[in-house]
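Record minuted for completeness.

…
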Amino acid sequence: MARARIGVARAMTAAVVLIVAGQAGAADVHQAASVPQAEACVAEAPSPWQIRLRALGVITEDSGYVNAVPGSGLSYSNTVTPELDISYFFTDNIAAELILGTTYANIDGQGAIGGLGEVGKVWLLPPTLTLQYHFTDFGAFEPYIGAGVNYTIFYHQQVGSADDLKVKNTFGAALQVGFDYMVDRHWGVNFDVKKLFLKPDFDVTVAGAKLTGKAKLDPWLIGAGLTYRF
């Protein structure tokens, strides 16, 4: 009887050892399997940064006036220029975009001052910051809308028929709509339309007389190009 009890005890002890060893082995296997999965998740985490390079058409509104000259008007040339923008995604839907580009405008007198012809030429540097909402329910097609602020710097101002010309830097609002079509994880094509509200004041001297006025540029910026996501 004693030998039987000893045999049963030994069998129970062996069973307990096997169960514990099996659980420890399973835990090791689960931990070993989870490490590559965690590493894969880290490797696949998308970068929040994105850049775009576009060809941009700048279409201005022909409006403005010279103070104290009734019936005066201004017109501006349309241009095509390259544009670079940098985006940072806070979430899959919310992003901030900084838009960088420069262009020029020829300024011509209209109406009562049409005889002046080309008054001058100015270059514009209009960095624009927008906050965007991206729609992510359409697969590779990713439309977005945005709104923000613009600060336009006027530089390298040249005179034409005027003796002197000074267009003043100004703030303005910006609205935006566009879409990306992603070809793969990193590359896509982009189409974008922005409206800037720019109404800078200016000083101009013609035939020794100093005049002031307001140029209503309010350009449409229509661009197409490439998207790259890091």
In short: The CA atoms of residues 73 and 110 lie 4 Å apart. The longest helix spans residues 2-44. Residues 1-45 form one domain. The chain has one helix and 15 strands.
